[in-house]
């Protein structure tokens, strides 16, 4: 009975992981298809990673035209502004894989929490891994903000336009 339960849970976890991987593929679960683009007719495409978006929030949003970042950079010389934008873009690119791995670990943790006989040690191990990743991201953000200050002489808030966490 115990072996059967373990096999069922392992199969369920495997299906969950495979479904998550399939959903994460470009075009979603349908994959590339048809004349209407990825995923077939009426299917929404996945949003590009943050570092490939023109600016989150659109007009007036944190990274959009007229948003806090645009106002923050607006008074700078074009060379300094370009250097600051490049710094931010490169930082976003470098952080994206780590943020995605952390999201994956959070999904693993949620699946493990929903498992009836999950060991506290396994749960705590995932919590520690997530916290380690969160600390890496925070340290990288602080380092980027220091570099931003060196370039612009403007202290970059932790979350421009959104206040502190």
What does this structure look like?
The chain is mainly alpha-helical. It is 60% helix and 0% strand.
Coarse shape = elongated
Helix and strand composition category: mainly alpha
- First-to-last CA distance: 47 Å
β-strand number: 0
Strand content range: under 5%
* Overall pLDDT metric: 75
What sequence of helices (H) and strands (E) makes up the elements?
A: HHHH
Radius of gyration: 21 Å
Main sheet overview: none
Helical proportion? Answer: 55-70%
Count of DSSP H/I helices:
4
Quick tags:
4 helices; elongated; mainly alpha; 165 residues
Summarize the structure.
This protein is mostly helical and 165 residues long. It is built from four helices and no strands.
How is the topology of this model organized?
Layout: H1 2-24, H2 68-74, H3 78-113, H4 120-152
Helix pairs in contact: 3-4
């Amino acid at each position: 009975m115990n072996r059967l339960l373990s096999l069922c849970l392992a199969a369920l976890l495997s299906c969950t992981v495979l479904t998550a991987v399939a959903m994460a593929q470009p075009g979603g679960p349908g994959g590339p298809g048809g004349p209407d683009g990825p995923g077939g007719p009426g299917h929404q495409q996945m949003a590009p990673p943050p570092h490939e978006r023109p600016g989150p929030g659109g007009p007036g949003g944190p990274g959009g035209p007229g948003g806090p970042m645009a106002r923050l950079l607006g008074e700078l010389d074009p060379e300094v502004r370009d250097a600051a934008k490049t710094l931010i873009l490169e930082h976003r690119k470098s952080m994206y894989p780590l943020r995605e791995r952390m999201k994956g670990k959070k999904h693993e943790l949620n699946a493990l929490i929903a498992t009836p006989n999950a060991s506290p040690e396994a749960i705590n191990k995932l919590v520690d891994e997530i916290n380690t990743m969160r600390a890496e991201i925070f340290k990288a953000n602080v380092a980027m903000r220091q570099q931003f200050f060196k370039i612009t002489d403007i202290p970059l808030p932790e979350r421009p336009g959104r206040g502190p966490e």
